[in-house]
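hey so u asked for the seq, here:
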Amino acid sequence: MNAISDLEIIKNGFDFSYLLGILQSVIPSLICITLHELSHGLVAYRLGDDTAKRAGRLTLNPLKHLDPIGLLMMVTVHFGYAKPVPVNMNKFKNPKRDMAITALAGPVSNVVITLVFLLLYGLLYLPLQGSAVGEYLLDMLDLTAYISIGYAIFNILPIPPLDGSKVLFSVLDEESYRKLMRYERYGGLILMALVWSGVLGTPLSTAIRWVYMHLFPLAQGACNLVFKLFYT
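ran it, structure tokens below
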């Protein structure tokens, strides 16, 4: 009986809203990370490099793609990075060009995710609003769209190990390219310092909000369509 009473105290004292809040940030982040990295691997595979496939990275399992620091950044500041998909550019027919295409695949996939989730948000807004569960789901759709566009913008920055650096380095000569790529391992620490110091975080957040607000009319248009079809 005492054990049951203790369990009731624990249950009644636990703040489930806190857990739901964490899930609301973590789940969208995992969606954005997983599809981003999967896109890199799939494009590389189509261009002739099977390294990601052999490493088990052509998967929807988010645990295969996580970088702890990058995920923490995504949950807290809504932009971050994942564990880079292994790519052997020597397997490409046109190494530097194909490397740039592979790198761009990730940010492009995040733009597509943003558009899809904004469309879903608009289509489901009227049916789901008004209930606690519905509002929670709407917030998650909205946050997924926002995090995804943030992830796209963040990753096009020309700082290793981000995708933008691989695009930029692809226009360099072979020797310079390989020298710069050696410093990729230090990029995560540099990025974290720049973000948390505010040097990068503040202007990046401003840019993300600006882009997101210019994409949000897609959701509004979808909502208006649902209203005309089913509520008039």
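The two ends are 57 Å apart (CA to CA). Residues 160 and 186 are 8 Å apart (CA to CA).
lmk if thats what u needed
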